[in-house]
Specification:
Layout (H helix, E strand, L loop, with lengths): L3 H22 L1 H13 L3 H11 L3 H4 L1 H13 L1 H10 L1 H21 L6 H31 L3 E3 L5 E3 L9 H25 L4 H29 L2 E7 L13 E6 L4 H5 L5 H18 L3 H23 L2 E3 L9 E2 L7 H28 L6 H6 L7
Antiparallel strand pairs: 1-2, 3-4, 5-6
Helix pairs in contact: 1-5, 1-13, 1-14, 2-3, 2-8, 2-9, 5-6, 7-8, 8-9, 9-10, 9-13, 10-12, 12-13
């Protein structure tokens, strides 16, 4: 049977894969929704964009459900602190991404009134733009640390305030996320539409790719030279029980760069972020949109992976009680739970991947304006 250290490492990687999968799969429809007001000029074009993302957004959100469920099963302390401490931000995500967006898809075509449809179009835009920023802001707060602590009986005390979650570094990360997903969504629109939407989507995707490189670079310098980060001094036991109070943690500017010095191979991960965005820009310029989409996905893997590699072994640091910070080694479920859940993942994740591949196979090809015009009573969009 796999030992507890190996299982914890496997689940650390799996959680990262699930959140990367969410960013890649649901990221492009969030990005496409964000670009809706910019790539369309008339009703037919708006309906084309909405019909690109309308049939698939709900299935794409399965990835965030998988990620949250896996976090609950594998890292219950992390789940408890993150979802309770950032409760109102998570609620805002649900309101924008999980409620207002599907309602806008269903209701915009219920009336032919222009004002009615423009109103729901802006709801679609907000449902793409705001979650993109919030996800990045949450990652920024994880890097800064949340203000929580455990008492000797492991009861959680959270002392943060809502507005503190929208600090300058978190907003910088939010803009980075917005640029990343806008690039990804613009490329997907370039694949799934025809001219003139394709040209506009490719233009905005190129601008977003350049902006991502600038923001990602700026975030790296900020983290390296200005941001106070966390370092384990002693007491971390990869084989120990899940109790976060048995270690000593210090805070120092630039500590998030330690792993790149200790493990030079880890520099590959941020390199993927830069290389993916740059090659996505080049393939867009060469009108190789499918290759650009692959490179955009690599950029997403690199950006999100950079956060994980920089923080390891931290998962969720505490800014008020450093010893309460949650590590890969002291915040997991039991060995048996991790092993059983790993078996579940090995069975059901391939099924999810196969079904997703089948859906995209069925929906392959661009959405054409003439088809939209012929079907005046199109289902929902």
């Amino acid at each position: 049977m796999l030992d507890i250290e190996t299982l914890r490492l496997i689940w650390w990687v799996l959680i990262g894969v699930l959140f990367m999968g969410f960013a890649i799969m649901d990221g492009f429809d969030l990005g496409a929704a964000t670009l809706l007001p910019f790539v369309t000029r008339n009703e037919i074009e708006r309906r084309i964009v909405l019909n690109v993302i309308g049939p698939i957004w709900e299935g794409n959100q399965v990835w965030i459900i998988l990620g949250a469920g896996a976090l609950f099963a594998a890292w219950p302390y992390v789940y408890a602190v993150a979802f309770s401490g950032a409760y109102f931000v998570v609620l805002l995500l649900l309101l924008t991404m999980g409620i207002s967006r599907p309602v806008s898809f269903k209701y915009r075509s219920k009336l032919p009134n222009v004002f009615w449809r423009r109103f729901w179009d802006w709801v679609v835009f907000i449902g793409g733009c705001l979650p993109s920023i919030i996800f990045g802001a949450l990652i920024g707060n994880v890097l800064i640390g949340l203000p929580f602590s455990f008492d000797p009986t492991l009861r959680i005390t959270y002392t943060g305030k809502l507005l503190e979650l929208f600090n300058p570094f978190a907003l910088w990360c939010g803009l980075t996320s917005l640029a990343m997903l806008s690039m990804h969504g613009g490329i997907f629109l370039a694949i799934k539409t025809e001219q003139p939407i394709r040209a506009r989507a490719a233009f905005y995707a190129k601008m977003a790719a350049l902006l991502l490189i600038i923001l990602f670079t700026g975030g790296g310098f900020w983290a390296a030279y200005f941001l106070k980060a966390y370092r384990v001094i002693d007491g971390a036991n990869p084989f120990g029980y899940s109790n976060p109070l048995h270690k000593h943690v210090a805070m120092q500017v630039g500590a998030w760069m330690d792993n790149y010095a200790n493990y030079p191979w880890s520099k590959i991960v941020p390199t993927l972020g830069f290389a993916g965005a740059l090659t996505a820009f080049l393939f867009l310029a060469w009108k190789k949109y499918r290759l650009a989409f692959i490179c955009s996905s690599i950029a997403i893997i690199g950006v999100i992976g950079t956060v994980g590699v920089s923080m390891f072994p931290f998962i969720l640091p505490s800014s008020t009680d450093y010893a309460s910070s949650l590590l890969v080694w002291d915040a997991s479920s039991s060995q048996l739970t991790l092993l059983i859940m790993l078996g579940v993942v090995l069975i059901f994740l391939p099924i999810v991947l196969l079904y997703t591949a089948w859906v995209y196979r069925v929906l392959r090809g661009p959405v054409r304006g003439e088809v939209i015009e012929k079907d005046a009573q199109h289902t929902a969009y």
